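Exercise 7.
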Amino acid sequence: MPRSVLIVDDSDLVRRGMRQFFEQLPDWRIVGEAVSGSKAIEIASELKPDLILLDFSMPGLNGIETASVLRKKLPHAYIAVFTVYDTSVGSRLSSAAGVDLVLPKADGLSSLSKTLFHFDRHRGAS
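Solution. The predicted structure, written as tokens, is:
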């Protein structure tokens, strides 16, 4: 059974790039996309994705605030946050919100590959 992913970013370009990446992977299916934290919470609550990719900086609820809500609603979901900011700062903030992984957006597709590697390791340990 394919694993599911929810893509959350206010940039259409970023969402499109992530979508194209996952469309090439037979073991993954995109269950939804959101441009805001509140929409992400709504979609994730309904569809319960295995992996949630969040932009750190979004209008309204940012990625950390969204992750904190999602962690409570979906404790088994794997949450990765992508940021253009210093990942050490993002990591400190994210650990308090229950984020599994923080990665720099600047690394592009390499970051998505790292996310899947960490997701698989995390799932293997469960």
